[in-house]
From TrEMBL:
Keywords: ATP-binding, Cytoplasm, Nucleotide-binding, Nucleotidyltransferase, Transferase, tRNA processing. One of its GO terms (biological process) is regulation of translational fidelity. InterPro entries: DHBP_synth_RibB-like_a/b_dom, Sua5-like_dom, TC-AMP_synthase_SUA5. Belongs to the SUA5 family. This is L-threonylcarbamoyladenylate synthase. It catalyses: L-threonine + hydrogencarbonate + ATP = L-threonylcarbamoyladenylate + diphosphate + H2O. Its EC number is 2.7.7.87. GO terms for molecular function: ATP binding; double-stranded RNA binding; L-threonylcarbamoyladenylate synthase; tRNA binding. GO terms for cellular component: cytoplasm. Its main location: cytoplasm.
Length: 188
């Protein structure tokens, strides 16, 4: 199957509230429509992840951040566009997301992706995606598709074929927090 068929099949699954297993700019991810509360519940169930542990949201463009954050730093678009490696930012004041995607303190983790597949999928779907590493909670992060647990592969609504044989080493994103004055604290 080619890239285009995977995009179409992912969109169909996402529109039906299903989960997808897909390659990202970091490691393989389990994803869903980030605005669909029931789909987010399916991600938690598939991963056996406690609901207190937050999930990451993927966006295609830095300017989209301002749509989901109540009071972003004035230079946030420039800050995000200048990251040199995949970076997830913890933002205060999440807006527009279902309750089960927002941390109890009102924050949300967002990464703007540079990955061509993810960018194309998000732009065509026209909504943000959930992205969490494709491993069972408490298990090591799978570095490659071949290391993903069969339970996840068999129970995802759609499994992307694109890049399944790619074994280029990739690491999870760095995680940072940006305060009101633009100071950055690295969390991972």
């Amino acid at each position: 199957m080619d890239f285009e068929n995977d995009i179409k099949n992912c969109i169909r699954a996402l529109e039906n509230g299903e989960t997808i297993l897909y390659p990202t700019d970091t490691v393989w991810g389990i994803g869903c429509d980030a605005l669909n509360e029931d789909a987010i519940e399916r991600v938690f169930a598939l991963k056996h992840r406690p609901k207190e542990k937050s999930l990451i949201v993927l966006l295609a463009d830095a300017r989209d951040v301002i749509q989901y954050i109540a009071a972003p730093h004035p230079d946030i678009i420039d800050i995000v566009e200048n990251f040199e490696t995949p970076t997830t930012v913890i933002y205060e004041g999440a807006i527009g997301f279902p309750e089960n995607l927002v941390h109890e303190n009102g924050s949300v983790a967002i990464r703007v992706t540079d990955d061509p597949f993810c960018k194309a999928l998000i732009k065509r779907f026209r909504k943000p995606l959930v992205s969490t590493s494709a491993n069972l909670s408490g298990e090591p992060t799978a570095a490659f598709f071949s290391q993903i647990a069969d339970e996840i592969k068999q129970n995802a609504g759609y499994v992307v074929n694109y890049r399944q044989d790619d074994e280029t080493p990739k690491a999870p994103s760095q995680i940072i927090k940006i305060d009101d004055e633009g100071n950055i604290t690295r969390l991972r």
